Amino acid sequence: MMRVNIIGTGLVTPLGNCPAEVFAAAREGRSALSLHEGFPEPFYASLLDRRAFGGGNLFHKVSVEASRAAIADAGIAPSAPDTGFILSTIKGNVEKIGSEDVSLAKSAADIAAELGVSTQPVVVSNACISGLAALVQGMRMIRAGIYKKVIVCGTEVQSPFIVTGFQSLKALSQKPCRPFDAHREGLNLGEAAAAVVLCHSERSEESQWELVSGAIRNDANHISGPSRTGEGSYKALQAVLPFVRKEDLAFVNVHGTATLYNDEMESIALQRAGLMEVPINSMKGTFGHTMGAAGILESILSMLALEEGIVLGTKGFENLGVSAPVSVSARERAVQGNAFIKLLSGFGGVNGALLFRKGGGL
């Protein structure tokens, strides 16, 4: 099977923009979550400092900045005809509706044009698994011979429309979220842009990360509620687990939104997949739920963690509050292995799992 490696990364987050800097902040236990007013109810969220970007179209600006950083890190020419661009987002420029054309296709085309990409961009908008699905799409496009390199950018900025929508679902916590904890009360929202450059490679060097196998499964359980049996997440895990030896799997970075049913569903799916002893962690207590950026942001930081031989702690977690006895990492701990799985789930019963491996392997 053709190898697809990650050769460049870029971030724009409330905790910084350099991946190493952001990882260090997360490792120190810092969080960008804070209380915000001005809506029907106060809400906790991790938001970008708009003053730092000088106004204008924030979604466009941070997408370009993260993508340019990944392109520079990879050392590629984005204008090459063998290079594609994928934009992952759920809401895109929704706050600009009424004042300009903010369709996702137009946003992707504008970002690609500023980056100098010459090929037609692709948009992946598939609820909370969008970032993971975009990585899988990029991997498949390379393996199909459509491109040799693909820039994948996931971006989300929050707006009154998004915040009040989640408030209407009673899904937001008015305190910092607590993934998998017995006293969790709901999720916090977040903003970020995260980008990677994928590349076809004949072989993986020891220093390179490889996308090994990805799976998207839709159990179509409910428009907003996850399956009570974790069916979709379990099926996605089943699809990628044959590609990794148990002793090589260091951890699973889960969705971990801190909502009652999502955390319970994920714990059941992990139990059904036989992964109770594998360390798991969630990054929502650090960055909030960054929606279309989550799959890429959390994967980049998971790669950096495993390079240090650790799994990051789950900020906000103290006492297990799910029925399956999963091994939640409350604090940083050492791990063994050269691979991890990124797990995500979303509205509409969509679920995805993606296996990452460092330095060759089977």
Task: Give short descriptive properties of this protein.
362 residues; alpha/beta; Peroxisomal Thiolase, Chain A, domain 1; 16 strands; 3-stranded mixed β-sheet; 9 helices; 2 domains
The tally of beta strands, per DSSP, is 16
User: Which class of the largest domain in CATH terms?
Assistant: Alpha Beta
Number of helical regions? 9
Poorly predicted tracts of residues: none
The CATH superfamily of the largest domain is identified as: Thiolase/Chalcone synthase
Output the strand order for the largest sheet. 5-4-6-8-1-9-16-15-10-11-13
Please give a structural write-up.
- The chain has 362 residues and is α/β, with parallel strands linked by helices.
- It has two domains: 3-201, 3-Layer(aba) Sandwich (Peroxisomal Thiolase, Chain A, domain 1), CATH 3.40.47.10; 211-358, Peroxisomal Thiolase, Chain A, domain 1 (3-Layer(aba) Sandwich).
- The protein is built from nine helices and 16 strands.
- α1 (19-27) packs across α9 (294-307), α2 packs across α3 (104-115) and α4 packs across α9 (294-307).
- The longest helix is centred in the N-terminal third of the chain and has 17 residues, at 58-74.
- The model has no long low-confidence stretch (mean pLDDT 95).
Summarize the SSE layout with pairings.
Layout: E1 3-12, H1 19-27, E2 34-36, E3 43-46, H2 58-74, E4 83-88, H3 104-115, E5 122-124, H4 130-143, E6 149-156, H5 160-168, E7 189-190, E8 192-201, E9 209-218, H6 231-240, E10 249-253, H7 260-272, E11 279-281, H8 284-287, H9 294-307, E12 310-311, E13 327-328, E14 333-334, E15 339-346, E16 350-358
Parallel strand pairs: 3-7, 4-5, 4-6, 10-11, 10-15, 11-13
Antiparallel strand pairs: 1-8, 1-9, 2-3, 6-8, 9-16, 12-14, 15-16
